[in-house]
Amino acid sequence: MATDIKDTAHTVEAAAVMRLLPARPRLLALGEPTHGEDTLLDLRNELFRQLVEQEGYRTIAIESDCMMGLVVDDYVTSGTGTLDEVMKRGFSHGFGASAANRELVRWMRAYNDGRPASERLRFAGFDGPLEITGAASPRQALTALHSYLAARVDTDLLPCTAETLDRLLGADDRWTNPAAMMDPARSVGQSAEAKELRLLADDLVALLDAQTPQLITATSRDDWDRARMYGRTTTGLLRYHFWMADTSPSRMTWLVSLRGQMMADNLLAVAERGPALVHAHNGHLQRDKSTMRMGDLPLEWWSAGALVSAHLGEEYAFLATALGTIRHQGVDTPPPNTVEGLLYALPEDRYVVDAPRLAAALGDTRPAPRVSPYYGYSPLDPAHLAGNDGIVFIKDVPQS
Questions:
Q1: pLDDT in tens, 84-122
Q2: What local confidence, expressed as pLDDT, does residue 1 receive?
Q3: Cys staple from 65: which of 72, 92, 146, 231, with CB 3.0 to 4.6 Å?
Q4: What gap in Å lies between CA 217 and CA 306, rounded to an integer?
């Protein structure tokens, strides 16, 4: 069996990845099992560089706030701002502090320098404006959508004025109160003002759709795409805040499901404009149903990858990253009866594995699930092995 497993492994490079797939997918996603390790991001950068140069991918989307990602996109496409400013203002979840993310942005800007617009790389954040402690105020996205429409359609068609939105939104700290994540009573998501905002946001998005031909002609498809993102973000945030204020047993399932849906909608919009590379946690990109426990509460939901795969079929491909050790986080050599342990026994330090062939090579031998001593690391689920198009394996992750 060891020989069969070795035959499924190849050097990590674009050509090896593409050999796993029937054709170039519109969205090619690379996951990671833990955040904050630049070794994983350095490998991502090199693989994505090859895929851009050899396979014609033109957008790189990562698990970061979609609104903040506009700052990065403006920089890499037109040089707006400075690299220091972009790393500070263009990423959520603390990802702007990563040296590997900084290098990715620097390289994208250098790649675009002197190229015509049709050949430039684009950047996208595809997460909602969400953190584990709560959600952003809908103000930025909602007022941007209203401003875009107010400048370009008849005033009589607008369902409200900017002043009405400002009054209904109130102070932003009402929306961002971190106590609301644990105490629904602290959320404003089901207040009378929030409910009215949901209706107005729905009308504004409907108006955007109804005026599409005029708006694209008056501005550009890129501006219209950005306005659509404002609309998705506005309605998604207002829906998320509504469920933050809910007290039913399904509250947390709704919240994790809504985040997955917001991610998926952003990825599908990215896919509309051409082939894109995607990077996020494995759990956001997998095709199988996601599960977790929050205290005594079991949760199940469909992640962004599962939703996108349902829409795109073979136009979506997913490579999970697996690893052997993160010794500085207490993750030592994997047990030999786990997937990671079987791959760790191979001589190479890093390689890409044909996951369906590996599953076939294992046959009836069912690897044991690996147990992680570190809450920030999620091992591969052996039950989901065949659902991946490939696995990128890194034997040892040194401290960054």
A1: 999 999 999 999 999 999 999 999 999 999 999 999 999
A2: 45
A3: 92
A4: 35
Rounded to an integer, what distance in angstroms lies between the CA atom of residue 220 and that of residue 216? Answer: 5
3-state SS, one letter per residue, for 179-201: HHHCCHHHCCCCCHHHHHHHHHH
What crossing angle do the helices spanning 221-244 and 139-150 adopt, rounded to 10°? 140
Helix or strand run (H / E) with residue 19: helix 14-19
CB 195 within 8 A of CB 232: no
Measure the CA–CA gap between 367 and 381, rounded to whole angstroms.
9
User: How buried is residue 23: exposed, middle or buried, by Cβ count under 10 Å (0-12/13-18/19+)?
Assistant: exposed
Q: Decide if pLDDT at 3 tops 80.
A: no
Q: What is the DSSP letter of 278?
A: E
Q: pLDDT tens across 28-42, in order?
A: 999 999 999 999 999
How far apart CA 200 and CA 188 sit, in angstroms, is 17
What is the C-alpha separation between 191 and 247, in angstroms, rounded?
Answer: 14
What global pTM score does this model have?
0.96
Strand arrangement of the beta sheet that strand 59-65 belongs to: 9-10, 350-353, 390-396, 316-325, 27-32, 276-281, 59-65, 122-127
Collapsed DSSP state (helix, strand, coil) of residue 268:
helix
- Cα gap 50→257, rounded to integer Å: 33
Residues 6+ apart with CB under 8 A from 65: 91, 92, 93, 125, 127, 128, 129, 130, 136
Give the β-pairing of 27-32 and 316-325.
parallel
Closest Cα partner for 382 from 400, 358, 399, 350?
358
**Structure tokens given for 80:** 């707006």
Q: In DSSP terms, which residues pair with 10 in a beta bridge?
A: 352
| Digit-coded pLDDT (tens) for 154-176 | 999 999 999 999 999 999 999 99
Do 353 and 8 touch, CB atoms closer than 8 A? yes
Closest CA to 273 of 48, 122, 144: 122
User: In 3D, which of 25, 110, 35, 17 has the Cα closest to residue 392?
Assistant: 17
What's the mean per-residue pLDDT of the chain? 95
The DSSP call for residue 386 is G
